[in-house]
Amino acid sequence: xxxxxxxxxxxxxxxxxxxxxxxxxxxxxxxxxxxxxxxxxxxxxxxxxxxxxxxxxxxxxxxxxxxxxxxxxxxxxxxxxxxxxxxxxxxxxxxxxxxxxxxxxxxxxxxxxxxxxxxxxxxxxxxxxxxxxxxxxxxxxxxxxxxxxxxxxxxxxxxxxxxxxxxxxxxxxxxxxxxxxxxxxxxxxxxxxxxxxxxxxxxxxxxxxxxxxxxxxxxxxxxxxxxxxxxxxxxxxxxxxxxxxxxxxxxxxxxxxxxxxxxxxxxxxxxxx
Length: 273
Ligand SMILES: [Zn+2]
Hints:
Cytidine Deaminase, domain 2; 2 domains; 8-stranded mixed β-sheet; 8 strands; 22% strand
């Protein structure tokens, strides 16, 4: 099955991009959830962020457990939305490198397509400086593999969504947890009881620095953002409440007016009889 195009809702785009921008040193990845319509357009409406166990450059492997978790999420979403949702693709970031898929990416993508021909890969290239304007540039590409060595680009459209959906909000707040889990696992891998004191202090210091970075770059801004949203939502509720009261008042007035009018109409008919 060849796809016509891919539509990604802007709240999904926001989550993927925030995830991609969360770390400059390593690639991040996740799975995309959505559905294909009858015109072969893929609609991506949610996302599952993945924890990377193997932190080598350009090694983005998804474990069977992670695939299973994502499938369960897709099933939950199907029930909530009453539409068939499934895992339809994967995304990963390319910090400081071009947006184009590497040989490994093309091969990985080809393997996924063996299981599901409509599967897509999306890459976010971040922390790249534009040579002319010297500004930070973000690029996104959506692709499918033709064989083990070549790929084709699939047109990607970011569709505006009126608000951030609950599944996307849930995914957004998992970002700090996932980053901290990765840092914790990396620390556990290099630490053991037999190490000398200096090495242990060094590892602990590197770990502390990484955790502080997650707090500073992700947790604090995210909390501020959510607090602002909460404040705005409370103000919206108050405004709507006032609007509701005013409308109810107006409705009552109109009903009264209507009642007295039909009364005088009745009186008139009685008089004529
Ligand atoms: Zn890659």
